[in-house]
Amino acid sequence: MEAKKERQTRQSRWSLSFAAIIALFVPLFISACSMQTDSFDSDTWKAQRGVKAPDNQRIHMVSSLENTIRVGMPRTEVIRLLGEPDSHDPATGTDQYLLGLAWSPDEKYYEIRYKEGVIASLRSAEY
């Protein structure tokens, strides 16, 4: 009888602990999701060109960027939306846009590689 009561007490404590963890993390998750916007703001993106990594706000626009540009899109259209890249490597056909800093001191970039004038691949990179 005593063992059964002790087991019920442990289960009750575990349930309360689990509920407390959920209650703490759900609001954090919701607020983190709401920080990303669904619509891409080309003017805001372009205004960040030349802004140093610690102050660059492009990092918060990646989700909407990825909903805007796609493999197969012509480079001329990308330049119209994003402006000139922060760097370009003609040997690889890759444009880089500085995103800023994330959770590490390394700078994050968005790389767009072109083949025959259209996007061949997209990726976030950290250097």
Automatic annotation (TrEMBL):
Swiss-Prot/TrEMBL keywords: Membrane, Transmembrane, Transmembrane helix
Membrane-spanning segments: 12-30
The protein's name in its UniProt record: Lipoprotein SmpA/OmlA domain-containing protein
